[in-house]
Amino acid sequence: MSALAAPIIGDHYLVTAPATVSHPVPGPETFESIVDDYQRRLYGFALRMTGNREDAEEIVQDAFVRAYRALAKMDPQQRAELRLQPWLYTITLNVTRNRLRSKRPTNVALDALADPDALLNETQEGPDQPEQIVDRAADMVLVEQALLQLPMHLRAAATLRFIEGRSHPEIAEILNQPIGTVKSHVHRAVRILRRILGPQVGRIVQNDRPAANEEEEE
Amino acid sequence: MRCCDVERLWDEMREGVEPRREHVLAHLRGCTVCQEIYRENEGIAYCLTCLPPVDPPDLLVPKILEHIKAAVKIETPDSIAAIDSPIGRLFIAFRHSGITAIALDRGEGEEAVFARLQRRLGRGLIPSQAPQWVGDTVAVFFRTHTTDLGKVDITELSPFEQSALRAAATIPPGEVRSYGWIAESIGQPTAARAVGRAMARNPVPLLYPCHRVVDANGAMHQYAYGVELKARILEMEGYHPEAVLTGSKRR
């Protein structure tokens, strides 16, 4: 296996972009199904952005209220032309921004998604937990916290790109920025994450590898 | 191609559509530094895609829908109509859920009353004709001094204000009770002052009879439209100030 083949286009971690859910014409009448379809995705996004479940829940609620109001004011033409998914991401991001701005900045880091110690203890208590799973959970907490250390705009770019699996043009639409800016934000986010996570990254990837290697040997 | 250009193109390379692909690959073959950066970047992307999916809390959908309903309700304007009554011209704000506010024109003019009600409700008011049920509710009050509370919407008040007003509505016409009595009957015996404030903020006077709530020693205390009017309404209902105040003596 060449040194480059896997890392560049290794399909085991190709960015997966779930197909955009399409609605005939979004409007207040169909709003319940819109909420149904998007609440999970937007909640996940808000949680990755804030690291705090309560914040995420309130952000999603506010975002849907805003979306509803805006939809109610649109004429049929505007509704037909609306690209629902990026639009909902944009609203969620705006609400997130407002909310984080009004909070003390330290909250972001302090309210990290999960407390690594608690998570470790919890997982270790289980008698039959293989060590690897414990490591894995702790590693994921490291990744979550590294993400939360990024400045807002870079975190948004990295989250949309790698966790939400959106394309560059779609992120540009969501953030209302030129594609070049999006690419450079993604790039800078990755560079900072590389610095924060350092050697941990190699270890996480390595830990996931053995299974693949075994397969190859067969 | 320089290292910094190659590094910048990493994410595009993953998409497989980068037009300079061949040049980047050529550079990578000869540059271990860039190889290392690409490997590390892939590691970062991999770590992020590995983050476990998060489940939204239970009942998030109904909560969101409830939230929307509340927000929309607050924004839809109420209707407002004028009705002449034995105590003067009343302005009644209402929506399909019930009467939401009542104001008496104290001679300040229609516009001033509208503005006062609008401030109180925090939303717009659309002047209109009083529908039958609104007229009937007011007429029944002046005839029998009772109200069908199903025709009055106080759900936007705080739970405390709501329960204080509901307690006030249990006072029979022709009688009065003290603030302390209300406080006790809603299970918060020390909240007499808060009851006083709730009565003062009553958006639907008459229909929720805050006028039947008086001082512990029977003094009229206060009324939005003046103590005199309070006395007049009570008299209309058959109450005589000399009568002994029933209920608790505590304020």
Indicate the topology:
The complex is a heterodimer of chains A (218) and B (251).
Chain A: H1 5-9, H2 31-50, H3 53-73, H4 76-81, H5 84-102, H6 106-110, H7 116-125, H8 131-149, H9 152-163, H10 168-175, H11 179-197, H12 199-217
Helix pairs in contact in A: 2-3, 2-5, 3-5, 5-10, 7-8, 9-11, 10-11
Chain B: H1 3-8, H2 10-15, H3 21-30, H4 32-50, H5 60-75, E1 78-85, E2 88-95, E3 98-104, H6 110-121, E4 125-127, H7 132-144, H8 159-168, E5 177-178, H9 179-185, H10 192-200, E6 213-214, H11 227-236
Parallel strand pairs in B: 1-4, 5-6
Antiparallel strand pairs in B: 1-2, 2-3
Helix pairs in contact in B: 9-10
Plain-language structure description:
The complex is a heterodimer of chains A (218) and B (251). Chain A is mostly helical. Helix content of chain A is 75%, strand content 0%. In chain A, helix 2 (31-50) runs antiparallel to helix 3 (53-73), helix 2 (31-50) crosses helix 5 (84-102) and helix 3 packs across helix 5 (84-102). With 251 residues, chain B is an alpha/beta fold. Chain B has a four-stranded mixed beta sheet. In chain B, strands 5-6 form a two-stranded parallel ribbon. In chain B, strand 2 (88-95) and strand 3 form a beta hairpin. At the A-B interface, helix 1, helix 2, helix 3, helix 8 and helix 9 of A face helix 2, helix 3, helix 4 and helix 5 of B.
